[in-house]
From TrEMBL:
<dbReference type="InterPro" id="IPR050219">
    <property type="entry name" value="DnaG_primase"/>
</dbReference>
<comment type="function">
    <text>RNA polymerase that catalyzes the synthesis of short RNA molecules used as primers for DNA polymerase during DNA replication.</text>
</comment>
<dbReference type="InterPro" id="IPR030846">
    <property type="entry name" value="DnaG_bac"/>
</dbReference>
<dbReference type="InterPro" id="IPR006295">
    <property type="entry name" value="DNA_primase_DnaG"/>
</dbReference>
<dbReference type="Pfam" id="PF01807">
    <property type="entry name" value="Zn_ribbon_DnaG"/>
</dbReference>
<dbReference type="GO" id="GO:0005737">
    <property type="term" value="C:cytoplasm"/>
</dbReference>
<keyword id="KW-0240">DNA-directed RNA polymerase</keyword>
<dbReference type="InterPro" id="IPR037068">
    <property type="entry name" value="DNA_primase_core_N_sf"/>
</dbReference>
<keyword id="KW-0235">DNA replication</keyword>
<keyword id="KW-0863">Zinc-finger</keyword>
<feature type="region of interest" description="Disordered">
    <location>
        <begin position="434"/>
        <end position="458"/>
    </location>
</feature>
<dbReference type="GO" id="GO:0003899">
    <property type="term" value="F:DNA-directed RNA polymerase activity"/>
</dbReference>
<dbReference type="GO" id="GO:1990077">
    <property type="term" value="C:primosome complex"/>
</dbReference>
<feature type="zinc finger region" description="CHC2-type">
    <location>
        <begin position="38"/>
        <end position="62"/>
    </location>
</feature>
<feature type="domain" description="Toprim">
    <location>
        <begin position="258"/>
        <end position="340"/>
    </location>
</feature>
<dbReference type="InterPro" id="IPR034151">
    <property type="entry name" value="TOPRIM_DnaG_bac"/>
</dbReference>
<comment type="subunit">
    <text>Monomer. Interacts with DnaB.</text>
</comment>
Length: 683
């Protein structure tokens, strides 16, 4: 969006910089100018001046200076366009738009009004939750037990959502107002006409954007139950991948301490603020994104990521590294702090104190070192093969760095660890980039379906043993199909080619007839289906037929009976989410929905799916409706069977991929050995 300079000049003339800065800084008259304590650095004597005549600010202590637009960008962390729009709204000036129609302009205005209404509704709810906290002895006792004072609770506007389903009915005059649903505060089930509060019996954490507007909530359950944290759904004003909890409260501390401390939990932020680390923020129940990093670098040049020392924390750190690399450079610093496995920031600082945590911050690993650690993962650096693999894994990370002195130095560091001359490593990478065989490969879509069973085939051909042994007459090679958002190149909804679609006959005997699997265990405890369990169901005759791939069938079962998601192991979930489009995208949505909302019935999930998902997902609705009408016990083993077959197929595809690259992949032999062992255990 290009804004004419003439408009910017008029905006500066119509804006009083004293009014703009005076909302954030206490100013006193000092001759022709006004003086105040600088909001950009710690000081005891005022060196921050504002000139009404020049419409300019300047700090003689830290050197910050600029006009009203620059002040909002520096202090509030706004982008240029947002700062201009903010000042234009205050001055009553319409911002010049690009060539848009009156209808488009009206739509923008309507969307803006809706966003303002949603933030006002959220603010009203936050105030009510805050008052309710004062009346709940158990919630207050919990906060005191976590060392949270009333002052910190007030700073973060902590609140309490009671047990009742209609608490907000006493807060808003019209509980049936659709805006309450749009804000994510109320859930409405059209099928039954039931309307109830989303947040019940939870400690409430209002989430505010950099302007201080309440855009959503996080709710933490105090006792047993799932999910532990429940967040507002995505709304027109709330986007988890773009916002950070506590950033509004932490802005000044980030400037004074010189860095932002990024955690994973809301209570981590509150506890750290209680112990003197008011510069802490947290992601909103999601992994770190590039938008998070970009937002933080508007407020500081130094970021410290604080993670638990367990495997989940290491995975989150690797994701944060990937997101931070494009923004790293010669003037920015990114470091990674890993706490002991038994601690998160909240428990660590309460047990060991402020000084011990400050020492951990000082020992945080720089991005340059952590990049080498991630690249060297699972590599035996004492061998030539291990060093070659390290260089291979380092290449995509190094390429994400912007052109800078840091990138040049990292090339030298990678070459040093790989024990290769720097120029030779760079030349090798350049040659690999030009070789089409090393171009990124698009994942092959999962085969469309199992082939049709002959009409006279015996029922036993549908057993797991028969399929695992390869007796399902799968086509040797399926044609590549366009999978971009479930649409083909001509824009029509995607469907498998007729010659690759076959009947996926789902056996469904009565519950009494069902053979049971042998009990299985996995590393997470006693629950969960293990694909290596020895017992398999006996052959059984199919009862009904429908045209559906088993990936879709598994997704339909999980959407119809989400409680079955809790029977899956982490390995199962990771495999499902890694499937090629469109299946992986659907399973990722299911997992995200469960993490945010817990187990819900299909009636609650359906409107959210229809609103959030692409239209192609809607074709699954009738099948999900059919499954949802049946008891969950009827589908427990069908889901397990589908997962076993999905894993077998994925392993076969991976074996084919490794075999094709055998001549160029130095690790191919080891990979094939591991994959074939895995496949043998499944069979």
């Amino acid at each position: 969006m290009a804004i004419p300079q003439s408009f910017l000049d008029e905006l500066n003339e119509r804006t009083d910089i004293v009014d703009v800065i005076g909302r954030y800084v206490t100013l006193k008259k000092g001759g022709a100018n006004l003086l105040g304590l600088c909001p950009f650095h710690e000081e005891k004597s005022p060196s921050f001046t504002v000139s009404p005549s020049k419409q300019f600010f300047h700090c003689f202590g830290c050197g910050k200076h600029g006009n009203a637009i620059g002040f909002l960008m520096e202090y509030a962390g706004m982008g240029f366009i947002d700062a201009v729009k903010e000042l234009a709204q205050q001055a009553g000036l319409p911002v010049p738009q690009d060539d848009i129609t009156p209808a488009q302009a009206a739509e923008r205005q309507q969307r803006k009004a809706q966003q303002k209404s949603l933030t006002d509704i959220n603010a009203q709810a936050a105030a009510a939750y805050k008052e309710l906290l004062k009346k709940d002895a158990d919630a207050i006792l919990y906060l005191k037990g976590r060392g949270v004072t009333g002052q910190i609770a007030a700073r973060f506007q902590l609140g309490w959502a009671p047990r009742g389903e209609h608490t907000l009915a006493s807060v808003f005059p019209d509980y049936a107002d659709p805006m309450l649903e749009d804000a994510g505060l109320v859930i409405y089930k059209e099928e039954t006409g039931r309307r109830y509060d989303r947040f019940r019996e939870r400690l409430m954490f209002p989430i505010r954007n950099v302007r201080g507007e309440t855009i959503g909530f996080g709710g933490r359950i105090l006792g047993q139950g799932q999910p532990k944290y429940l967040n507002s759904p995505e709304t027109p004003v709330f986007h988890k991948g773009r916002e950070l909890y506590g950033l509004f409260e932490a802005r000044q501390a980030i400037r004074s301490k010189g860095y932002a401390l990024v955690c994973e939990g809301y209570m981590d932020v509150v506890a750290l603020a209680q112990w003197g680390f008011a510069n802490a923020v947290a992601t909103l129940g999601t992994a770190c994104t590039e938008q998070h990093v970009q937002l933080l670098f508007r407020h500081t040049d130094q970021i410290v990521f604080a993670f638990d020392g367990d495997n989940a924390g290491r995975k989150a750190a690797a994701k944060a590294l990937e997101c931070a690399l494009p923004f790293a450079g010669d003037t920015r610093s990114v470091r990674f702090l890993f706490l002991p496995k038994e601690h998160d920031p909240d428990s660590f600082i309460r047990e060991r104190g402020e000084t011990a945590f400050a020492e951990q911050v000082e020992l945080a690993v720089p991005l340059s070192q952590y990049l080498l650690q991630v690249a060297a993962q699972d590599c035996q650096l004492a061998t030539a093969e291990g060093r070659a693999r390290m260089a291979h894994q380092a290449r995509p990370l190094w390429e994400r760095l912007p052109e800078s002195a840091l990138k040049l130095q990292m090339l030298s560091e990678i070459a040093r660890v790989a024990q290769m001359p720097r120029d030779e490593l760079q030349g090798l990478w350049q040659a690999m980039a030009q070789d089409p065989r090393n171009a990124p490969r698009r994942p092959r879509p999962a085969p469309a379906a199992m082939p049709a069973e002959p009409a006279d085939a015996p029922a036993g051909d549908w057993t797991i043993e028969a399929m695992a042994a390869g007796n399902w007459n799968e086509p040797a090679d399926l044609p590549a199909m366009p999978m971009d958002d479930f649409h083909a190149a001509d824009g029509a909804p995607w469907a498998p080619p007729p010659d690759t679609v076959a009947d996926y006959r789902v056996p469904t005997p009565s519950y009494e007839e069902r053979p049971r699997y042998a009990a299985s265990r996995h590393s997470g405890g006693e629950r969960g289906f293990s694909p290596y369990s020895g017992a398999r169901p006996a052959p059984r005759a199919p009862v009904r037929q429908h045209v559906q791939r088993r990936e879709e069938h598994a997704a339909c079962i999980l959407l119809a009976h989400m409680s079955l998601l809790e029977t899956l192991t982490e390995q199962d979930l990771m495999l499902l989410c890694r499937l090629p489009e469109p299946d992986g995208r659907l399973f990722t949505w299911i997992d995200d929905h469960y993490q945010n909302h817990g187990v819900q019935d299909w009636a609650s999930i359906r409107p959210i799916l229809e609103q959030a998902g692409p239209p192609a997902w809607h074709r699954l609705v009738p099948r999900i409706e059919e499954i949802a009408q049946q008891p969950v016990a009827h589908y427990r083993e069908e889901l397990q069977s589908a997962l076993r077959l999905i894993m077998i197929r994925r392993l076969n595809l991976e074996i084919e991929e490794v075999t094709r690259n055998y001549d160029t992949d130095s690790q191919a032999a080891a990979k094939l050995l591991q994959l074939n062992r895995h496949l043998a255990r499944l069979k």
